[in-house]
Amino acid sequence: MSPGEVPVYSTGGRLKAMERRVKIGEVVLRLAMCGLGVLTCALIGTDTEVRTIFSLEKKAKFSDMRALVFLVIANGIASGYSLIQGVRCLVAMSRGSVLFNKALAWAIFSCDQVMAYVLLAAVAAAMQSAVLGEFGQPEMQWMKICNLYRKFCNQVGEGLVSSFLASLSMVTISFVSAFNLFRLYGTNKGRGSSSYTVGM
Amino acid sequence: MSPGEVPVYSTGGRLKAMERRVKIGEVVLRLAMCGLGVLTCALIGTDTEVRTIFSLEKKAKFSDMRALVFLVIANGIASGYSLIQGVRCLVAMSRGSVLFNKALAWAIFSCDQVMAYVLLAAVAAAMQSAVLGEFGQPEMQWMKICNLYRKFCNQVGEGLVSSFLASLSMVTISFVSAFNLFRLYGTNKGRGSSSYTVGM
User: Which fold has domain B14-185?
Assistant: First the structure.
């Protein structure tokens, strides 16, 4: 046997079973991410409240806050992306094919990472705006607005929870695609949990 | 040769050279991250400006904004962590040892991922506060403050740039630790860039 010819399933069914679990998990996560992203867009995008104060009509809507607009756009893009990737995974599963193409693995890995980081950044920025709306920042003369727009703020809160779950799914997906990519550079060593020392 | 006995450097010096480059890159990135994190803490933590408006003294300091406090704390923790990890990498390099311990690789991978995401979230939240300070959000009655505290805002901007570079370093480090971990699950397949299809 030449050094290049390494059996893929050298440890028998264990690796095969793990690959199957990872594949199913990836599809579930991608579709869950898509659903949560759409839910976020729906919750935040339709969020509006009108209050009449001393016969003066005041309206709060999601587009009044830059961070919420960014959140809706990021979730929309990530949902569409996740749907496409989910379908790709399903097709690959039904064909029973395994990803061994490094270029494709790199492309998927890069896109997943960018999506995960952008989504998390959008959630963090929106969370900061929400905290500002709830508690204000009196030192900067930024007053809280949630005592005025209670329903608006509650719905933003629900959207933030769903968006946080969406970004957690995306982060987990990015782990899966990192796994799918970097195992192609595998050494096939260290199957146990003991520590080896190899001279360089 | 039994299936378990796979030569580590089956493709000769190429893998060895790549491993060495990755190791050196990791040390450089960890130390750069540490330096940039400390720079961020110094820039933001010492940022203060006093203005006298109609004989009324007004002071802006970083602790007036929650997001900046969070940024300083996150950068402080990440810098300390990176320093410890950088030293660990240097010791491992001087000993010429290679990481084959799955438990340790998982621990490093998890910590790196958490640090990268927390740091990026802190930067995003602080960026949102900075945009608010620069442009305000008139719909919410949150007025811009940077026309008043120009020097304060400029220094926050410098801190944000350094913090963004720090989080980019941390993100790249998290790729390296994902590489170090998941290659332990390697299939040793797909060295070329062609696509294989294996029945499941």
Answer: Butyryl-CoA Dehydrogenase, subunit A; domain 3 (1.20.140)
Rounded to whole angstroms, the Cα distance separating B61 from B68 reads 10
A63-87: pLDDT as tens digits: 989 999 999 999 999 999 999 999 9
What residues 86-125 of chain A have any CB closer than 8 A to a CB of chain B? 95-98, 100-105, 113, 117, 120-125
Nearest to A125 among B125, B171, B194 (CB): B125
Is B23 within 8 Å of B93 (Cβ atoms)?
Answer: yes
Query: How far is B105 from chain A, CA to nearest CA, in Å?
Result: 10
Tokens 């300083």 correspond to: B72
pTM of the predicted structure, to 2 decimals: 0.83
With tokens 């390099």, the residue in question is B93
CB contact under 8 A, B4 and A10: yes
pLDDT in tens, A141-167: 888 889 889 999 999 999 999 999 999
Domain A13-184 annotated CATH 1.10.287 = no
Write out chain B residues lying below 8 Å of A60, CB-based: 139
